[in-house]
Amino acid sequence: MLGVFCSLLASLLFGGLYYLATWLRPLEGQEIFGFRMLVTLPFLFLAVFVLKKQAEFIAFLKRIRQEPYLILVLIFTAFFVGLQMWLFLWAPNSGRAIEVSIGYLLMPIMMVIAGKWIYKEYLSVWKWIAIILAGIGVLSNVIQTGAFSWASAVVLTGFPFYFMVRRKFNIAHIHSFILEVTILIPAALYFISPVDLKQIETVNEHIYFALFLLGLLSGVALISYTMASYLVPFNVLGLLGYLEPVAMMAISFFIGETLKPESYILLICLSFAILFLIIDGILNILKQQKKRKAKQC
């Protein structure tokens, strides 16, 4: 239960960060990104101590010393995750919150497609239906608008590629993420260097409190998700992860964005596609439970 609670808390807090971006005006997307990197890094190191992973972190540093090419890999992955984190905070203040939310809704579908195409994973009937529905939704949107949102495309292609690179080089853990954020710190400092917080305070009197919340929510969300990843089976973690894009979409409507009529079919198709993926996940969990009980008998 603790793992499930941590996962749900992380999803809700990440959704809350989406809304918090509107409290940070008039800071621009790259400036919010810069502050987030600075306030997040201490919490990441705290997570290593809370989870008692110091030995693993040191072992990873030693591995990099033995395999120095990983430095280039981490620079590469840092760029991709940095782009996603910037987009996440830029979208709510730029009228693109719904588009980015749609990208996050499409991402699980893209992960399923990548699993089949690259890793030759088995696809159930439910997953095939989800892929077909998502395809119909995207195609209808392209036909009606003549294009597809670049913000949605960056999310639905960028994250799966990022995850695949991390998997390829066996660096899919919090230790590599800490180093990725560390690599991004110079860029973060560059983005916030022109910022005059005293001047911004004349426009937004709550800016310091909002920045404090940015660090607190980011840190607690990351620690909660990391704890959940150690406590909850991977398939259950993936199932619970669908809450975040749903929360993001709800917040997009809450902050005043409206869905364009030409995107109605896309959102309906995506909603059913995610529903079918959830059903598939639940069925897989039930099958695994039956297998465990059968072995015990």
TrEMBL record:
The chain crosses the membrane at residues 33-51, 71-91, 97-118, 125-142, 148-165, 177-195, 207-232, 239-259, 265-286. It is a multi-pass membrane protein. Belongs to the EamA transporter family. It holds the Pfam family EamA. The gene is rarD. Keywords: Cell membrane, Membrane, Transmembrane, Transmembrane helix, Transport. This is EamA family transporter RarD. One of its GO terms (cellular component) is plasma membrane. Residues 2-139 form the EamA domain. It is found in: Cell membrane. It comes from the Bacteria. It comes from Actinobacillus porcitonsillarum.
